[in-house]
Each structure stands twice: as C-alpha cells, then as structure tokens.
Amino acid sequence: MTKKAQHNSIILAVIGFTAVVAVVAIIGFFTLGQKDDTIQGQVEVTEYRVSSKVPGRILELRFKEGDYVKVGDTLAILDAPEVRAKMSQAQGAEDAASAMSEMARNGARQEQIRGAFEVLQQTKAGLEIAEKSYNRVQRLFDEGVMSEQKRDEAYATYKAMEAQVKAAQSQYDMARNGARREEKLAAAAQVNRAKGAVAEVSSYMNETVQIAQMEGEVSEVYPKVGELVGTGAPIMSIAVMNDVWGAFNVREDQLGGMTVGKTFTAYVPAFNKDIEMKVYYMKDQGSYAVWKATKATGQYDLKTFEIKARPTVKLEGLRPGMSLVIKKP
What we know:
By secondary structure, the protein is an alpha+beta fold. 44% of the residues lie in helices and 28% in strands. The strands form 3 sheets. It has a 6-stranded antiparallel β-barrel with strand order 1-8-13-10-9-14. Strands 5-4-2-7 form a 4-stranded antiparallel sheet, with no helix packed on it. The longest helix is centred in the middle third of the chain and has 33 residues, at 110-142.
C-alpha cells in the first residue's frame, strides 16, 4: 500500500471517530441533559388482615381470592379442641362456685339445725340438774354437814354445765342464722370470678369463627383447609376498595408548591384518563436511599417526600397497583 493510501485511511478513521463522538454528544445532550419532570406513583388501598387470637386448624374457608365480602360475613372457621376443653373446665368451676354460694346463702340444713337444738336442750337439762345439786350441797355446807371440798366440786360442775349451755346455744344460733356476711360475700366473689373465666373462654371460642369487620375484596388467602395457624397468624387479607388513594415519591425540587390540601391532575394510563386528586398526607422519607446531591461537589442534598392523595371524584374500576402520572400545570 502506498503512503498516500495510508494517509487517506488515517484521515477517514479520524473523521469517522469524530462523527461518532459528535453523535454520542448530541444524543447525550438531548437525553441526559434534559430534566425528567415525570412523577409516577401507583394506586393503593387500605388492607386489613384477618387473624385469630387462638391457635387452631382451618376447618373451612368461606371465601376465596377475588371474592367480595360484607360486614358480618363468616370468613373462616377454626377447630380449637383445647379451647373447648377449657370451656368445660370453666363451666364446671362456675357450677361449683354457684353451689357453694347457694349453700352459704341458705345456711345449714334442717337436720343440722335440729341436731344443734337437741344438743342445746340436753345441755340445759344438765345445767338444771347441776344447779339443783349445787344448791343442795350448799345448804348442807351451811348446816355444817358437807365439807367445803364437796361444795367446791358441785359449784365447778354447775359452772361447767353453764358454759356448755352457752356453747350449745352459739352452735344452734350459727346453724339457724347460716354463714356470716363475710363468708357469703366471699362465696359470691368466687362465683363472679368463675363467671369471668367463662366469659374469657367464651371470647376465645368466638375467635374460632372469623367474621368480616369491614366490607371489601379478598386480596390474599394464606393457609389451606386443614393447616394449623398460630395465634395472630394471618388467615386472609381484605382490601377495602372504598378507601383508594395514590402514593407518590416526589423529590423536593419537583414538589412545585404541593402541600396538604392542594389538588393536582394525575393521568391514569389504564383508562387513558385524567383525574383530579387532593393531597392529604406528606412526609419526608428520611433515608439515604432517596436523596440526591445537586452537584458533584455536594453543596446540598435533595430529599424525597412521600405524597398520598385521594381522587376528588370516584373512578370506577380503579384498582391497587395501577399507575398514576402527575401532570405538571
């Protein structure tokens, strides 16, 4: 190859390289150099998870994913034999406490009262004999016929029988009057305690049947029929379709005066339609994952804010996950 041909090839290569660099620079200017003002978010809805306070086995699932439920609908039924056993124990304790309280209110049985009365009569008869004996011994002692020792023994017997009469009288009064006020109150307190235990177990029994608290759409069902679920484990999630909003992550230099209470227009690609939305929540993300330095030297940083807004007019068919694009005025 001649020197002239080599020189022409080098010139062509330089020209081609320069052209490529120029094209890349132009593309970079029109793409990277321009600021992207598009702010995209998505539709969200309120969700609540259905769960039980007691562990159990899933016996029945009344709804599947995509079904719409209303307040009061039975969603799931669990089998909890341990709770049923505790209910039997609690009811047995309540019955026993009620019986004890009834016995305290009614007092002793009639047979016990009659027995105490007979003992009282017996001791009174003994007291009467002891009193007569003492009086005779006392007269003989006064006449000098009976010794002082015999008089003292008769007097001791008389006083002993007198004490027995008082004891028998107290036993008869206690049997007739029944339990003391404090004992009756204690028995009534035991009944209330047992009733509280029954009420507690009843609340656990109610947890074996899960009822819808709000109407909405079943978004996800977690266990299968026959599986065990623990305390507080989610059984299904319900999306409250009446509570729809849009969630956006907006850098602070793109807020453009957006504040709580302000309205803006958002484009819904799924319907090719614009909707008006009103901001009701605004909070900084507070994470290094969402800030951006304005310059390479990092003079100051731009934080990202989470914006939530609700449509001012309901749009039928708007579902969670659909895209929303904020339109700049």
